[in-house]
Amino acid sequence: MVQKFDGFGRFQRCPGTLPRRSFLRTGAAGLSIAELLRAQAAGGAESAALAGKSMIVLWLWGGPSHLETFDMKPDAPSEYRGEFRPISTNVPGMEITEHLPRLASLADRFSLIRSLTHESPGHVNSTHTLVTGYPGDLTEIPPYKPKHPNAWSVITKCLGEKRPGLPVHVANHVRYDGAAYLGGGLEPFLVQGDPNSPGFQVPNLGADWVAKDRFASRVDLLAHLDHLRRDLDTSGQIAATDEFSQRAVSMLTSNAARNAFNISAEDPATRDRYGRNIIGQQCLLARRLVEAGVRLVTIDFPYVPGQKAKSWDDHASVWNIFEEMKMRLPVLDQVVSSLITDLSERGLDKDVLLLVMGEMSHTPRLSNFQGQPGRDHWGRAMSVFLAGGGLRMGQVVGSTNSKGEEPQTRPVTPNDFLATLYHAMGVPLSTQFRDFAGRPIPLVPNGNPISELF
Which terminal Cβ of the chain has fewer Cβ within 10 Å, N or C? Predict the structure, then answer.
């Protein structure tokens, strides 16, 4: 059950939620997609009014160091500032790393949070802390599933689909994903593979791969059995199940999803702009998806193919942070600047929020392993990049001290950060969930939207 307070101490259902009910999996081509669509759907006037918002999340797995990206400290001692130098942007007073020159020319179209802070020390618990608003388990024992619903599941549950025939949430990788007590069916539509490959396609998207007579017979069987169950139903939930089954069939038989995923239809010049590599084409695919009507796209960007690093986790004991950053940052610069420009040119920048971040940062003070420089885990100060979504751009929120160790002004908690995302997307902050024991759990405990961004 998902609920919110109505202002009089009473519970109300979160807009767009529907009661869960299991139904027959027919084995037809992808008809089990209906379970996903059922839990993702939203209805009612309030959710319809919010249907315009979408979000693209570029997750820099491992945690990018703020001192090598968006919060340079050129006057700090050498063991803090590192090898890179800042460059000016087109926003007076805002500087970023020299390895992001394209973004420097677009600074008026994005904003930076430099004072996000948390105490979680590991990758799993930091991810949990940032995407649920509740501190993660410090033991980090498998299975790595959040104990509270993450932001992506909340958005899926409360806002639902933006356009019929398309999934709510599309992801290229699932990393510590989970809806906890919101129940099943809120998982993203997973699209793996390399969109840069000439033969790239999304498997089983459409019914062409199943004989038409076989597909039709299974749809008819589902309809027949649902009709029998509907005669016995007194709550109206069977009718709701029928609706989701019909949406699953619609997704398989319509052209909306197929066209959105058909990246080969994109102008070659646009594909070149993003970069002919897996990360560039995943970001271009994300733009195609939100333009077509997908609510949320999450892209896992752990590394650039061919480099030694397999994440942004730049310990001195595994690789040289500066060598790896010199390979990663130009790719980040290209894909993010392309997304910002492309979304703006297509008139989508007000309705699509672009978020670039990882689960933590790395220590301001450099470490050294056999002459190799690196940085270790650090959550007490980290930077977050936001663009579009109708937010106020061209500014920096908060600051860190002279060595980048902790917030100096305007500290932002994970709950403040999540409250900002939910408010921007249109999820009521008064929403409450019922946990497995039936207790009401706040969506964002003690968090407030970052006022400077609105």
Answer: C
Could you tell me if 359 and 63 are in contact, meaning their C-beta atoms sit under 8 angstroms apart? yes
Contacts of 44 (CB under 8 A, 6+ apart): 15, 16
Question: Which residue carries 């398309």 as its tokens?
Answer: 166
For residues 204, 210, 213, 216, the Cα torsion angle rounded to the nearest 10 degrees is -20
Beta strands 372-374; 407-409: pairing state: unpaired
Whole-angstrom distance, CA of residue 153 vs CA of residue 182: 8
C-alpha 430/C-alpha 177 separation (Å) is 23
Q: CA quadruple 423, 427, 428, 429: dihedral positive or negative?
A: negative
Taking the complete model, does pTM exceed 0.70, yes or no?
A: yes
Give the DSSP per-residue string, 334-394. Answer: HHHHHHHHHHHHTT-TTTEEEEEE-S-EE-SS-EEETTEEE--EE-SSEEEEEEETTPPPS
pLDDT above 90 covers what percent of the chain?
Answer: 70
In whole angstroms, what is the distance from residue 360 CA to residue 375 CA?
A: 12
Above 70 in pLDDT, residue 42? Answer: no
Distance CA 446, CA 86 (A): 35
Residue partners of 449: CB distance under 8 A and separation at least 6? 416, 419, 420, 423, 424, 429
Domain boundaries, the chain: 18-50+64-107+117-406
Q: 173-204 pLDDT, tens per residue?
A: 988 888 999 998 899 999 999 999 998 988 76
379: left (phi over 0), alpha (psi -120 to 50) or beta: alpha
